[in-house]
Amino acid sequence: MIAITGANGNLGKATIAFLLQKIEPEDIVAIVRNPETVREFKQKGIIVRQADYNDSATLKGAFRGVETVLQISTIGVDTETSKQQEANVVKAMAENNVKHIVYTSMVKAHANTIFQGTQTQYQTEELIAKTNIPYTIFRNSMYMEAIPEFMGNALQTGEIRYPSGNGKVSFVSRNNIAEALANVLAEPTSLSETYEITGSRAYTFAELAQLINAEKKMNVQHIDISDTIFREELIAHQLPVQVADLLVSMAHAIKAGEFSYTDSTLEKLLGRAPLSLSEYVRGL
After folding, report:
1. Which of 253, 237, 214 minimizes the C-alpha distance to 116?
2. Residue 21 φ/ψ, nearest 5 degrees
3. Over the range 85-113, which residues count as b (16 or more CB within 10 Å of their CB) and which as e?
4. Helix, strand or coil, per DSSP, at residue 77
5. Cβ neighbours of residue 220 under 8 Å, at least 6 residues apart?
6. What is the pLDDT of residues 101-139, one digit of tens each?
7. What is the 3-state secondary structure (H, E, C) of 109-160?
8. Does the residue 182 lie in any domain?
9. What is the DSSP letter of 187?
10. Does any domain span residue 221?
């Protein structure tokens, strides 16, 4: 059986949709905190198990009889809580003697990254490696699907207000990642691999604005606001301070180039060219 944690999220649902094209639904275990959010899974014959990342007992039961696990990473505003939650998942997988772990991390993860979320994911990578269970790490760059959030109300104002400087992002399609994950899950290996999953080109936010203008016949520009103004605007939109700080750390990371790396691995995993940024923008 193949289990997916966080199965009710966008990436989890998309991965399961691709998996259903390869294996029987009764061989898929969807692990979620609230089973009521995935009633459609049960209707398709998928096994749904409840588990809380803060409750080791529920996690241990959720992985019973499972051979392969996709652990979808969490990004929380409390870094220490997120680290402990992910550690609980790794411990439960090891206790159940799973045969293969697939984990979603962040591109070029290392111990001293600026982005708080990547710090958590690198620690989890280290914990997985220590289990001696074969693993496949997907170090994903920023999702294309996050672009509307970065844009905010740019379609109305003509301005993408974001403190990214000249930092570049190798945007990648979440749907392409889900398909590649399903391919790996359906054919587990005894080898341990770490893949950098990115778009084929990295873009500054000014270049992103130019692309939007070319594809959508608009006149949008990138305004490189200060971190202070960005944080103030986030809080003015009723975001909690901790969430604002997390998003500021992401902007810092983009400015520093933490999401600029490009790699061709995704094309190899898909067996074809992945969705390009221009194709994604055209469909907005």
Report:
1. 253
2. -85, -5
3. bbbbbbebbbebebebbbbbbbbbbeeeb
4. coil
5. 151, 154, 155, 158, 159, 160, 209, 212, 213
6. 999 999 999 989 999 889 899 999 999 999 999 999 999
7. CCCCCCCHHHHHHHHHHHHHHHCCCCEEEEEECCEHHHHHHHHCCHHHHCEE
8. yes
9. S
10. no
Q: How large is the C-alpha radius of gyration of the chain?
A: 19
Given a cut of 70, the residues of the chain with pLDDT beneath it are: none
Separation CA 29–CA 38 (nearest Å): 12
Domain count, the chain: 1
pLDDT for residue 216? 87
Strand partners, 3: 29, 69
Residue matched to tokens 């051979």: 67
In degrees, rounded to 5, the angle at the alpha carbon of residue 281 between the alpha carbons of residues 280 and 284 is 95
Q: Are strands 135-140 and 100-106 parallel, antiparallel or unpaired?
A: parallel
Q: Which two tokens stand for residue 155?
A: 């379609």
Structural domain of 60: 2-140+173-197+261-275
Lookup: tokens for 119 = 């710090």
Separation CA 147–CA 283 (nearest Å): 12
Check: CB of residue 126 under 8 Å from CB of residue 95: no
- pLDDT in the model for residue 159: 94
Inside any domain, residue 39: yes
CATH of the domain at 108: 3.40.50.720
**Residue 222 domain-assigned (yes or no):** no
Cβ atoms of 101 and 132 within 8 Å: the answer is no
Cα 282 from chain centroid (whole Å)? 22
Say if CB 131 and CB 95 are below 8 A apart. Answer: no
Q: Tokens for 57? A: 């007992």
Residue appearing with tokens 């190798």:
170
User: Exposed, middle or buried: residue 196 (CB in 10 Å: 0-12, 13-18, 19+)?
Assistant: buried
* Predicted TM-score of the model (pTM): 0.95
